[in-house]
From TrEMBL:
One of its GO terms (biological process) is DNA repair. It catalyses: Couples ATP hydrolysis with the unwinding of duplex DNA by translocating in the 3'-5' direction; ATP + H2O = ADP + phosphate + H(+). Residues 279-440 form the Helicase ATP-binding domain. Its EC number is 5.6.2.4. This is ATP-dependent DNA helicase RecG. SMART domains: DEXDc (SM00487), HELICc (SM00490). Belongs to the helicase family. RecG subfamily. It holds the Pfam family RecG_wedge. GO terms for molecular function: 3'-5' DNA helicase activity; ATP binding; DNA binding; hydrolase activity. The lineage of its organism: Bacteria, Thermotogati, Synergistota, Synergistia, Synergistales. Plays a critical role in recombination and DNA repair. Helps process Holliday junction intermediates to mature products by catalyzing branch migration. Has replication fork regression activity, unwinds stalled or blocked replication forks to make a HJ that can be resolved. Has a DNA unwinding activity characteristic of a DNA helicase with 3'-5' polarity. It comes from Aminithiophilus ramosus. InterPro entries: ATP-dep_DNA_helicase_RecG, DEAD/DEAH_box_helicase_dom, Helicase_ATP-bd, Helicase_C-like, NA-bd_OB-fold, P-loop_NTPase, RecG/Mfd, RecG_dom3_C. CDD domains: DEXHc_RecG (cd17992), RecG_wedge_OBF (cd04488). It is an enzyme of class 5 (isomerase). The gene is recG.
Length: 689
């Protein structure tokens, strides 16, 4: 044991831990005493009631307090199987405890020992017996596991829940007083919140259900409050940036663009364009999320928003997650907008220096009205003359920070983020704060659901002849190869060999190959060829997952589909079914895991992106689905963004009020320090005095 224990003391130095077990603890993300305090039980066992032998009922699990009468270690007829049997009495009745292969338990329990036994109860030849019970010898100390609600910790190989329980019991009395409650007293009183240390203790050893709920609420509040406080501070800092430009919705450029479109807007598109128009006519920054299923036509809405900036005399920026998508958008927008005299530049990694220079200059001098690009848009040298509005497509692919970086290229530009993954309100609020939401809840007319089928490997030949038929009718086909090992090189290898094979099998067809490691020029050329129908079959890695839009493509084959995530499969499927022809999504491979099978079944069962997102949320958790996980913003120990909406609202209100009256948090320095330690970097908070 270390001399003085601190929250950041390494667990290695705790009694009974050592470096071997410390490594195992690390698997549970536990390195320090503080981490250990926040390792909360996975469940609890109610051992408050101690039952007399007479009152036991077979088929239940119960706790008995009894004295050992005799104990014997008996060999059995089966080799390798040992049996310890103890005769017990609670003073009135008798019963047995039975352990299989639990060595040493007989030595722990010499006759006369008083102990508690917790386990399943059976009736055997008229006597009750408890099989493989958890046992605790009663001595002078306060018992851990007797007559109370007992925590069961998440076990990992080599660390039993029992061992963890002992470790925590040992550490709690010294470690809990180290927890400082930095929540302002006023808030604690107003919201009737327990003291932090008491709540943490209560999560380990709750007295009853109500006590547990109160403790949980306190710790969840703490977690949600800190994030909300960080967000409120950030907003406060951003607001000092000044007013946003008033833009001009449905001005001449927007109208000309609409006239050039080959279709009228859907009702939903019209509504959302109106909502955006209302926002950007004000000098307060728009902060709006557009949710719309794959294929619902978000791009057109985005372009109209960007044109509101142009019509108002400002520039617009359109950030997308992949180069393939940037290329496509740039080509389309240029085709539609150059006739109107607008210059649209493309910014992506690996542009030839001359082109990059020229594009940057055009943006800085204001000759270019719009920029389409990948992450390259937020790089240092990129400067706009008058950036008025930014659109971020497939928001879940970007982090909160990147969005901030792009907004920083202008003076409080309006922001529209778009996603095909419906995000629960609790999550949008907790990650983005005050975010208005628009929904495209209508697909363009004439769309038919994509026929989605699972195809086992043994039916591969039939699949090949089916796509042959489709190509003969002039349709185009995607063939997506899976991630092999999280390794690009291997992915590329598998796609390359599939490309060779399919070229051989379809000698008369034009078979293309697209993957992330190709030179941009090649990607661009291939994509253009596919758009023009000059490629029949496109073999690709997941680079085509989002955004690619070719109406004549009617078949999406996904190889080894069980390896993909559910939302990812839905996105891939969304690449087809964009024209009037019947379209197919064929999931090739034999699902070997339960999870994989479930995903594939879910996809075959529904085409509704909202349904799919719901299922995905359940399978993977919200942080993962919405792409915020990697920023550590939602790595809560206790709070659950899907369930704790009410606590979240309270925490948010308190955080906003606090920032309102004390924006530098000068009156609560400890809270401020804790906040900066946790989120200063993640939220890019300015260090203020
Ligand atoms: P997503 O919401 O997935 O980004 P896109 O913006 O790529 O969808 O649009 C999908 C396809 O639907 C595109 O080919 C687009 O041209 C077409 N589209 C968009 N709006 C309409 C509409 N109102 N009527 C018909 N087709 C439309
Ligand atoms: Mg899109």
């Amino acid at each position: 044991m270390t001399e003085t224990l601190a929250l950041d003391s390494d667990v290695r130095f705790l009694r009974g831990v050592g470096s071997g077990r410390a490594r195992l603890l690390e698997r549970l993300s536990i390195r320090t005493v503080g981490d250990l305090l926040y390792l909360f039980p996975r469940r609890y066992e109610d051992r408050r009631q101690l039952t007399a032998f007479e009152a036991l009922r077979p088929g239940t699990t119960a706790a008995v307090l009894a004295r050992v009468v005799t104990v014997e270690n008996r060999p059995t007829r089966r080799p390798g199987l040992t049996l310890v049997r103890a005769l017990l009495t609670d003073g009135k009745g008798y019963g047995y405890a039975l352990w299989f292969n639990r060595r040493g338990v007989d030595r722990l329990l010499p006759p006369g020992t008083e102990a508690s036994f917790y386990g399943p109860i059976e009736l055997h030849r008229g006597k009750f017996q408890i099989t493989n019970p958890d046992v605790e010898v009663i001595d002078e100390g306060e018992p851990d596991s007797t007559g109370r609600i007992v925590p069961v910790y998440p076990a990992t190989e080599g660390l039993s829940p029992l061992w963890l329980r002992r470790l925590l019991r040992q550490i709690l009395p010294q470690a809990l007083p180290l927890l400082v409650d930095d929540l302002p007293e006023e808030i604690r009183r107003r919201r009737s919140l327990l003291d932090l240390a008491a709540a943490v203790e209560g999560l380990h050893y709750p007295r009853d259900g109500d006590h547990w709920r109160a403790c949980r609420r306190r710790v969840a509040f703490q977690e949600l409050f800190l994030l909300q406080l960080g967000l409120a501070l950030r907003r406060h800092q951003a607001r000092k940036g000044g007013l946003s430009p008033r833009l001009t919705p449905m001005g001449p450029m927007a109208r000309a663009f609409l006239d050039a479109l080959p279709f009228p807007l859907t009702e939903a598109q019209r509504r959302v364009v109106g909502e955006i128009g209302a926002d950007v006519s004000l000098d307060e920054p728009m902060n709006r999320l557009l949710q719309g299923d794959v294929g619902s036509g978000k791009t057109v809405v985005a372009v109209l928003a960007l044109l509101a900036a142009v019509d108002g005399g400002f520039q617009g920026a359109f950030m997308v997650p992949t180069e393939v998508l940037a290329l496509q958008h740039h080509r389309r927008l240029s085709a539609l907008l150059s006739p109107l005299g607008l210059h649209v530049v493309l910014l992506r990694g690996g542009l030839p220096p001359r082109e990059r220079e020229e594009n940057l200059r055009a943006l800085e001098e204001g000759r270019a009205s719009l920029a389409v690009g990948t992450h390259a848009l937020i790089q240092e040298g990129v400067r706009f003359r008058r950036l008025g509005l930014i659109v971020i497509d497939e928001q879940h692919r970007f982090g909160v920070l990147q969005r901030g970086a792009l907004a920083g290229k202008g003076e409080s530009p309006h922001v529209l983020v778009m996603t095909a993954t419906p995000i629960p309100r609790t999550l949008t609020v907790s990650i983005y704060g005050d975010l208005a939401v628009s929904v495209l809840d209508e697909l363009p007319p004439g769309r038919r659901p994509v026929v989605t089928r699972k195809v086992e490997s043994k039916d591969r030949r039939r699949l090949l002849s089916f796509i042959d038929g489709q190509m003969r009718e002039g349709r185009q086909v995607y063939w997506v190869c899976p991630l092999v090992e999280e390794s690009e090189t291997l992915d590329v290898a598998s796609a390359t060999s599939r490309h060779e094979e399919l070229s051989r099998l379809f000698p008369k067809r034009r078979v293309g190959l697209l993957h992330g490691q190709m030179a941009s020029r090649e990607k661009e050329a291939l994509l253009a060829a596919f758009h023009e129908g000059a490629v029949d079959l496109l073999v690709a890695t997941t680079v085509i997952e989002v955004g690619v839009d070719v109406a004549n493509a009617t078949v999406m084959v996904v190889e080894d589909a069980q390896r993909f995530g559910l939302s990812q499969l839905h996105q891939l499927r969304g690449r087809v079914g964009r024209g009037a022809e019947e379209s197919y999504c064929l999931l090739l491979g034999d699902a070997t895991t339960v999870e994989g099978r479930r995903r594939i079944e879910a996809l075959c069962a529904t085409g509704d992106g909202f349904r799919i997102a719901e299922i995905d949320l359940r399978l993977r958790g919200p942080g993962e689905v919405c792409g915020v996980r990697q920023h550590g913003l939602t790595d809560f120990r206790v709070a659950d963004l899907l369930k704790d909406g009410k606590i979240l609202d309270e925490a948010r209100r308190e955080a906003q009020d606090l920032v309102e009256i004390d924006p530098s948090l000068s009156r609560c320095p400890r809270l401020r320090d804790g906040l900066y330690r946790l989120y200063g970097e993640g939220l890019d908070l300015a260090v203020t005095g």
